[in-house]
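Weekly modeling sync, notes
Attendees: S.R. (lead), two postdocs, one rotation student

Agenda item 3: backlog of single-chain predictions. S.R. asked that every request posted to the team notebook include the full sequence so nobody has to chase files. The rotation student volunteered to paste the first one in as an example of the format we agreed on. Action items at the bottom.

Example entry:
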Amino acid sequence: MFRMILWLVIAVLMTWLVGRRLQKGSPMAAIGLVLGLIAAVYLGLALLLLVFQSKLVYMPWAKVEMTPADIGLDFEDLRIATPDGQTLHAWYIPAEDAAFTVLFCHGNAGNISHRLDTLQILHDLGLNCLIFDYRGYGQSTGRPTEEGTIIDALASRQWLIDHKQISPDRIILFGRSLGGAVAAVTAARIPDTPSAGLIIESSFTSVPDLGARFYPWLPVRFFARFSYDAKTALQSVDCPVFIIHSPDDEMIPFEMGQTLYAAAHDPKRLAEIQGSHNEGFIEHVALYRSVWKDAIQFITRPK
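Predicted structure, as returned to the notebook:
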C-alpha cells in the first residue's frame, strides 16, 4: 500500500511539472525534466534502502504481552548472558519425559510472547523448548545485528548444555523466517558438536536474494548490508535437515525453500504446509502438527 501511494504521488507530481513545461512550449525541457525526476527518485529510493535496511530486517517489539502461563504451560523465565556482554530474555518450557529439546529462533518481528501458539504445539508433541529474544527484542538488552543474532543463538544453545545438561545431539535447532537463517548459520558454526537436527520453516536463501525479489528495479545486492546466507551455511551443516515451506507463502517464495533443500547435504527432507507466511501454520494446524511429527521421526530415526 505504501509503495502504491508513493508511486501515485510521484506520478501526480511529474504530470503537473511536465504540464507546466509543455504550457511554456518547451517539449525537450519537459523530457529532460522527466528523466531527471526519474533519476532523482531512483537514487532517492536506493539511498532510503541503504539507510533504513535495518528497519526492514528487524522489527522488534518491546512489550512482552503474554507468557506461557497464560496458555497453561509451566515455564522458567530466564536471563541468558552472551559472550559479548548482552543479556537475553528467554523461556524454557519443559515437556514430560521429553527426549529432545527445541531451540527456537523466531522471526524478525515482535518478540517471544508472540509465539505462544507454536510453543503449545511443540509442548503437545512432547518436546522441551527454549525460546529466546534476540538482542534488542522484548526484554533483551542491546540492539540487533546480524552477527549478534548468531551469537545469541549460540549462547542460548550453550545455556541448554551447561544448565540443563542436554547433550548437543539432543538439541533440535528450529528457525522460522529470519530465524531459519539464524538457525542455519548457527548450525554451520558448530561442526564439531552437531545438533540432533535442523528444522527451517518459511525461510529465505539470503537477504540479498529476498530483497532482489521484492525490489528488482533497485541495486539491492550492491547496497545490501545484511547477508544471512542460509544457502551457503547449509553446505557446512552436518546433521539431518528438514525444510518446511508453504507454496502459498506470499512473503518468501516456495522456490527459496526448494533451493535451501537442494543446498543441504543428506539426510534431508522438504515438507509442504499450506497458507500464508505468518498465519498458515495456525490456519492449517492439523497439517502443521503432522509435518512436525514427520520431522521428529525423520530427525530421530537411527542413523
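Discussion: group reviewed the output briefly. Residues 2-51 form one domain.
Action items: rotation student to repeat for the remaining queue; S.R. to check formatting next week.
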